[in-house]
Specification:
Blueprint: H1 2-19, E1 30-40, H2 46-56, E2 60-65, E3 71-78, H3 79-90, E4 96-105, E5 114-116
Parallel strand pairs: 2-5
Antiparallel strand pairs: 1-3, 1-4, 2-3
Helix pairs in contact: 1-2
């Protein structure tokens, strides 16, 4: 029964992420940013939503749950696209983002995709 509920939740998260209208973005500088979202961000499909949006926005990096209940992501790509993703996650109704910390990082040439880390 639980796996069926998890499947429904995953399907809903993917459906929701895919219906967000992605605007056109001006070419901007490429950046890498470490972002930690805290609040009620685990067990609500938050990581999967970050992953789906990052894929659609053609960002690279990763996202993972942290032991303290927060979610950490490293995002690399167009600064406007990263800001758009962060704003989408802040406004997510099924989560409650209480705090966001953001640290600029050096670019990494070794990555070419976006992944969910366990």
């Amino acid at each position: 029964m639980m796996s069926l509920i998890n499947k429904w939740r995953e399907d809903y998260v993917i459906w929701h992420a895919n219906r967000i209208k992605i605007p056109s973005f001006e070419a901007r500088n490429i950046i890498r940013r470490n972002i930690t979202f805290s609040g009620r961000v685990q067990n609500v499909g938050f990581r999967l939503e970050v992953y789906c949006l990052a894929q659609r926005l053609q960002l690279i990096g990763w996202v993972k749950n942290l032991a303290d209940g927060s979610v950490e992501a490293e995002l690399q790509g167009n600064e406007s696209k990263i800001n758009f993703l962060v704003n989408c996650m802040k406004s997510l109704k099924r989560a409650s983002v209480q705090n966001i910390t953001s640290i600029d990082l050096p670019l990494q040439d070794s990555e070419d995709s976006f992944v969910i880390r366990k």
